[in-house]
Amino acid sequence: MKTVIVLRHAKSDWSDAALRDFDRGLNDRGYRAAGVMGRWAARKPLRFDAIIASPAVRVVETLKQFREAYGDGPEPTFDRRVYLAAGATLAEILSETDESASTVLLVGHSPGLEEFILAAVPEENRSALRDSVEVKFPTAALAILDFDVANWSCLGEHSAGKAKLRAFVRPRDLDPALGPESV
Fold first, then answer.
1. Which of the residues 72, 78, 131, 181 could staple to 55 if both were Cys, CB 3.0 to 4.6 A apart?
2. Is residue 182 part of a domain?
3. Helix (H) or strand (E) run with residue 120 in it
4. Residue 82: inside a domain, yes or no?
5. The dihedral sign for the CA sequence 89, 91, 95, 101
6. CATH code of the domain containing 65
7. pLDDT at 183 (0 to 100)
8. Domain tally for the chain?
9. Whole-angstrom Cα distance, residue 139 to residue 128?
10. Is the pLDDT reported for residue 148 higher than 70?
11. How many beta carbons lie within 10 A of that of residue 58, not counting itself?
């Protein structure tokens, strides 16, 4: 079995409209949410052997906050292909993972992360967790997928329907102050 912990970047800062999308960092709420998720992962305890992440600034800052709250862990590999990747591309990237790793933390963007999760978890085995991801995979949300495969190379284009969604946690589940902002 191989496990993928999927983490979406935390809420980004839109205060500087001149910044390229790639260069946007986090806002204060994003920093708080990334820390909350890192502390939760440490308490679980979630363990991962590798980190694959987008090099976009908001992902780098999310991962920094998450890791500071989480504690010791592997150094991330920043892969430009993760930036705004479709779900199928994420599966291909994961298929290249070193076989010594049994669990990978994948940190990236919407909508590719949701596409990856929804394709990996069979629709015929619908669950409340899958339905929640289908409705919305918000910023700083985390999902845990267990793949019924022996090797990472089995993911690639063949990952569809091979996973069980073990957990789906949003920052607001851990701290109601991080829930949707009222309009």
1. 78
2. no
3. helix 112-120
4. yes
5. positive
6. 3.40.50.1240
7. 37
8. 1
9. 19
10. yes
11. 25
Q: How far apart are CA 154 and CA 147, in angstroms?
A: 10
Q: Which amino acid is at 9?
A: H
Which DSSP letter does residue 101 get? -
pLDDT at 119: 92
Residue 121 tokens, joined = 């978890």
In this predicted structure, the answer to whether residue 144 has a pLDDT above a threshold of 70 is yes
Integer-rounded Cα Rg, in Å, for the chain is 15
Sheet with 163-169, side-by-side order of all strands: 76-78, 50-53, 103-108, 2-8, 142-147, 163-169
**Per-residue pLDDT reduced to its tens digit, 30-64:** 999 999 999 999 999 999 999 999 999 999 999 99
Is 165 inside a domain boundary?
yes
**Other Cβ atoms within 10 Å of 86 Cβ, number:** 13
Confirm if 6 and 106 have CB atoms less than 8 A apart: yes
Q: Identify whether the C-beta of residue 40 lies closer than 8 Å to the C-beta of residue 65.
A: no
* Strands of 9-159, DSSP E: 50-53, 76-78, 103-108, 142-147
